[in-house]
């Protein structure tokens, strides 16, 4: 199905996709690119890629499928670097966690949204990074959202859909702005809260004691604060407006709760917790 797959950014997301597609037997050749030779050599050792070049243009030349899985802040530079080598058969997609900024980056580089670009976002991941953290089952049964534009070539959309399905994912399409609003609520806000909570606690005078006695609840809530800071800085900046809206909504909820607590309004506190528990239990399938 894919003659030459080029993965730019062979980390958790790009590496896991390469591994899944290799296992599925749908790629003839997989070429990697990234900044550090060390990570790319490790990707070779692990059998994730067949060869690599740190110059994304050399890696992408002749590829019929190019997946850009670098932090959002690096997308535009990568698009600019590979622009001269994109051929008529090339399909370009990405894995970035916000989509409006990727479309803006494409417009800045190509002058318009190119028909061969299919912006995408796998709703899968862990708090770990680098090719060493990648594994082929990452996308099994997980959702991938594609955000095609009116300009998008339907054959390119089909090819990217088939690629993710071959990796085990369930693919759906969504409009760019809607994607960014939904993900601000379900992923970006929780990450901001986790980073912010851990940072706040760590700056309390008695922080050593707090962390010493922290138990399962803290571990669960704070797990995603172990995610890559560069990646999350880029996501926050890229999806700033949607995240700010969600922070406002969250602060309103927290203020409401503060009022209930001050007034010792047991009934409303219980009502809030019951409502939240019902939603969370439904989500995890209790
Ligand atoms: P990662 O494990 O850190 O991998 C990113 C890769 O990009 C690294 O191999 C890095 O190579 C390379 N890279 C970084 N800056 C680069 C640059 N300027 N030029 C070329 N290569 C560069 O991160 P990830 O978790 O796979 O995330 C990749 C993308 O997927 C991000 O856009 C993120 O928003 C998105 N995403 C992440 C998750 C998640 O849960 N992690 C989920 C969905 C989507 P070097 O090691 O050589 O620097």
What can you tell me about this protein's structure?
By secondary structure, this protein is of the alpha/beta class. The protein folds into 2 domains: 2-174, Rossmann fold (3-Layer(aba) Sandwich); 178-285, 6-phosphogluconate dehydrogenase C-terminal like domain (6-phosphogluconate dehydrogenase C-terminal fold). It is built from 12 helices and 9 strands. The chain has helices at 12-24, 37-45, 56-60, 75-82, 100-110, 154-166, 176-202, 207-213, 216-222, 229-238, 240-262, 266-284; strands spanning 2-8, 27-33, 51-52, 65-68, 91-94, 117-118, 120-123, 143-146, 170-173. Strands 3-2-1-4-5-6 form a 6-stranded parallel sheet. A 3-stranded mixed sheet has the order 7-8-9, covered by helices on one side. Helix 4 (75-82) runs parallel beside helix 5 and helix 7 crosses helix 11 (240-262). The two termini are 39 Å apart. The mean pLDDT is 96. It binds NADP nicotinamide-adenine-dinucleotide phosphate. The site of NADP nicotinamide-adenine-dinucleotide phosphate has 27 residues, from helix 1, strand 7 and helix 10.
